[in-house]
Design brief:
- The structure is a single chain.
- The protein has 273 residues and is mainly alpha-helical.
- The strands form two sheets. A three-stranded mixed sheet has the order 1-3-2, with helices on one face. A two-stranded parallel ribbon has the order 4-5.
- It is built from eleven helices and five strands; from the N terminus they run H-H-E-E-E-H-H-E-H-H-H-H-H-H-E-H.
- Helix 5 packs across helix 9.
- It is globular.
- Helix content is 52%, strand content 7%.
- The longest helix is centred in the last third of the chain and has 31 residues.
Length: 273
């Protein structure tokens, strides 16, 4: 397979970078130049159609790694712009996101990196983790939810699209910082004071802290599990088996214990240092 650097060099032979205007942002902007390239998406301008092609690639990634989904009538997954401030959400057969994210101006802003596209990735991945497989909420003191595997898968896709350095900086490092801040939080260290707050304020703080554990701590635990089971390919096999497991119609939820058993690990083994 050619590398990103080799493809870039071939393009420079056709159009030397010395001919670029001062304001023209040319060359590789994100990712690892040594990464192997399996497919190329060409666009002179990033438009909604180009973004839709990127979405198709995300859907193909999840289908190849975990299995196919049924999206109902017409077997079509819908991507919908909506006034969902600050992110998006997924429903059966459709992923919705903030209309401000899914615009040509936003998606073509090089300073934002893959950020806007990653909102789409996350909500699309929920079709597999959260809808295709529903999750058992392990309890208020556990980080287990659909968000953990969704964030982990989004990280894996971003790593493939934008490179290992980008994924480390914008995912793993940020997760770790959030976890470090969580365990330094006053109310985490002194929960007795949290109970003394007015109900509305107490719920706001509790929900914020719980969200951090679901969106940041759990993906780190899954990354640790990935290392312990032997790497990405081994974890992919485990997740594919879990996604395609035979469901109990009386309780069709994926539990934390099922995940641990599939990995051959204990909950204590995934404690973060």
């Amino acid at each position: 397979m050619p590398t990103v650097r080799e493809i870039e060099s071939a393009l420079y032979r056709l159009a030397p970078r010395e001919g670029a205007m001062d304001w023209d942002n040319v060359g590789q902007l994100l990712g690892d130049p040594a990464a192997e390239v399996t497919r190329v998406l060409v666009a002179l301008d990033i438009t909604e159609d180009v973004a839709a092609e990127a979405v198709r690639q995300v859907a193909e990634y999840c289908a190849a790694h975990y299995g196919s989904l049924s999206f109902g009538t017409g077997e079509v997954l819908k991507l919908i712009q909506s006034r969902v401030t600050g992110g998006g959400y997924a429903v059966d057969g459709a992923s919705l996101l903030d209309e401000a994210d899914f615009t040509t101006a936003n998606l073509s802003d090089a300073d934002k990196g893959g950020g806007a596209a990653e909102v789409m990735i996350h909500e699309l991945v929920h079709q597999w983790w959260g809808l295709g497989n529903m999750f058992d909420a392990a309890g208020p003191d556990s980080p287990w939810s659909a968000e953990g595997l969704t964030c982990y898968t989004t990280y894996r896709i971003a790593k493939q699209l934008f490179g290992e350095d980008y994924a480390q900086e914008h995912y793993v490092n940020q997760w770790q910082q959030a976890v470090d801040d969580y365990y330094l939080n006053f109310y985490v260290r002194h929960p007795e004071y949290l109970e003394r707050l007015p109900e509305a304020q107490r719920l706001q703080i509790s929900n914020s802290l719980s969200g951090m554990r679901q969106y940041c701590e759990m993906p780190l635990k899954i990354l640790k599990a990935e290392e312990l089971v032997g790497g990405e390919e081994a974890m992919d096999q485990i997740l594919r088996a879990l996604f395609n497991r035979e469901l109990d119609p009386m309780y069709p939820y994926l539990t934390y214990q099922e995940f641990l058993d599939a990995c051959g690990l204990t909950e204590e083994a995934l404690n973060l240092d």
